[in-house]
Design goal:
There is one protein chain. By secondary structure, the chain is an alpha+beta fold. It has a single domain, classed as Nonspecific Lipid-transfer Protein, Chain A (2-Layer Sandwich), CATH 3.30.1050.10. The protein contains 4 helices and 5 strands, in the order H-H-E-E-E-E-H-E-H. A 5-stranded mixed sheet has the order 3-2-1-4-5. The longest helix has 24 residues.
């Protein structure tokens, strides 16, 4: 592991956050939605799912629990999100069933999960109501 001074780590996190803020807000402001680099998009999906949505706040909940799988086609990672009565939990995708599986490029999934218009419709396998729940209730709030 790289040993960086705390100021360098904080600066790196700020640069990362600013990159995603710019990308997501630009997507909302542009008439034509761009394709983002797969690495940037996958990092943005990770930040949203494992960072913002893993917090114990917000209205994205489900009783009974439902499972959403996010599978980009152009990067070597995927995510499995359990949406339950108390919030969301990211679980290992290996061997886990999903109520809804989203499959598309990382860029398209990035835009979809951040509630921006996707450049192309992603593949939705399973219960589309799980995606509808995400689209209606997944919100990032700054406190």
């Amino acid at each position: 592991m790289l040993d960086l001074p705390s100021g360098a780590v904080a600066a790196g996190l700020l640069v990362r956050r600013q990159a995603h803020e710019t990308a997501i807000y630009a997507a909302g402001a542009l008439g034509e939605v761009p394709d983002y680099d797969p690495g940037l998009a996958a990092d943005g999906i990770y930040e949203l799912i494992a960072g913002f949505m893993a917090r114990n706040s917000g209205t994205l909940c489900s009783d009974p629990p439902v499972f959403l799988a996010v599978r980009p086609t152009d990067v070597g990672t995927s995510w499995h999100v359990m949406i339950h009565p108390d919030g969301r939990t990211v679980t290992s995708p290996a061997g886990q069933p999903a109520d809804c599986t989203l499959t598309a490029s990382a860029s398209d999934l990035y835009l979809l999960l951040w509630n921006r218009r996707p450049a192309r419709q992603p593949g939705v396998d399973g219960d589309g109501a799980v995606l509808d729940l995400w689209r209606q209730e997944a919100r990032v709030h700054w406190r």
